[in-house]
Amino acid sequence: MKQRELLMDKHSLDLALTRITHQILERNQDFSKLGVVGMQSRGVFLAKRIVAKINELEHLALTAGTVDPTLYRDDYRMALKQPVVRITDIPFDINHINLILVDDVLYTGRTVRAALDALVDFGRPKTIQLAVLVDRGNRELPIRADYVGKKITTLPNQEVALKVAEIDGEDSLWLTEFEEGD
Amino acid sequence: MGLSSRHLLGLEGVSKEDIELILNTADSFHEVLDREIKVVPTLRGKTIVNLFYENSTRTRISFELAEKRLSASPLNFSSSSSSVNKGESLRDTIQNIEAMKIDMVVVRHGAAGVPHFLTQCTDAVIINAGDGLHEHPTQALLDIMTIRRKLGRLEGLKVAIIGDIFHSRVARSNAWGMSTLGMNVVLCGPPTLLPQPMDSIGVPVTFNLDEALEGADVVMFLRLQLERQASGAFPTIREYRERWGMDTEKLNKLSKNVLIMHPGPINRGIELSSDVADGPKSVILEQVTNGVAVRMAVLYLLGGGENA
Question: What is the value of ipTM here, to two decimals?
Answer without folding.
Answer: 0.76
